[in-house]
Amino acid sequence: MTHFYYSWCAQQTTVDFPVERTERDEFILTDGKRVYDFISTSFQANFGHGFEPICSRMVQQLKAMPIASPKSSFDLKEDVSRRLTDLIDLDGGKIFYTVSGAEAVENALKIARQITGRPIIAARQKSYHGASLGALSVTGDWRNGPHLTFDEGTLRIPEYEDDPELVRTEKLFQRTGPEQIAAVILETISGTNGMAIPTSQWIEGIQNLCRKYGCLLILDEVLVGFGRCGTDFAFHQYAVEPDLICMSKAISGGFIPLGAVWTSQKIAEYYESQTLSCGLTNYAHPVGLAALDGVLASLSQPDFRQSMEDLETCLGENLARLRQLDAVTEVRQRGLMSAISLNHSAPTWEAAFQEGLHLFSKENLILLAPPYISSPRRLESAINQLKELISCRG
Prior knowledge:
Layout lengths: L18 E5 L2 E4 L4 E4 L2 H4 L8 H13 L10 H14 L5 E5 L2 H16 L3 E5 L8 H6 L15 E4 L9 H10 L4 E7 L12 H14 L2 E5 L23 E4 L11 E5 L1 H6 L15 H14 L2 H21 L5 E7 L2 E6 L6 H6 L2 E2 L1 E3 L2 E4 L7 H18 L1
Parallel strand pairs: 3-13, 5-6, 5-7, 7-8, 8-9
Antiparallel strand pairs: 1-2, 2-3, 4-10, 9-10, 11-12, 12-15, 14-15
């Protein structure tokens, strides 16, 4: 029995994960066995486990100024905030920093309710937005159930495939009273609920509904931001301009807890005269900002982006071969993220781990999100391992 909890499971069912150290894109277990990190740990280690451009900036910051007041200003804080806003590539706006994705969602919900004066947030059923109580209230999957969430403040809207023209969704808005709806929150592309990729018609239609009824649009890019889906942010693949964007995970490469909310210029102007009642002790932590500095610097390097594109091509070519298996019914890919649907139950996390692969599986679904720094050769080897694992289960 350990003196700590394992997350998201009954403690007696937990399979131990005895890691001694990590190297690039692998876990090294205490017995020396190597396990390929096929989902970048929990989708945050996009730059692997020891990426020098991020680690060195963090070390430099620890030596120069390891802690700062939430209200302080310093060059790094302004510089990375400006560059992050530039990466988002919308009309201005400002950044509010957090230390997790759940807190990013919490603060986005607070801001939306404060600005509109409306109590209800519309959200999809197949969604996950974080483990804190407000974020769980808009979450629609199994994690919502046990926690007595504030469901009276959440309006469930149909999935995009069930209401592609948004006829039912608009009727729900009208029945609820659009003057009660503060915002719609969406994962631009969902993660652990199946990597659902909305059509342009649907997600742009959601934006049109928001504008029609005076609601805000919140996009949750916690899992899919910072290059994961082939563009800097997944929303760049759609003709949408959200009011708020939630970020975390790859924002620091997972090397230190960090999150953020981008708000539009209109929201930024509102808070020039109104009190922003949001704050955290470790707001804009300087070591976290140093990690973000390394992330932004890396994503701006042409050679690094080219290696990401090469890895994306490698993933696509190998997934095409995987599609030929009788057990595989569908493969979805965006950038360096993919979902594989099977006609039988997927190998469990434990079974894959025993075979040297760390991946996410659920029911008949496997999710893959390899680190950006993997080599095509290592990625191809991991796909071959996965192919054998799927074939053995068939």
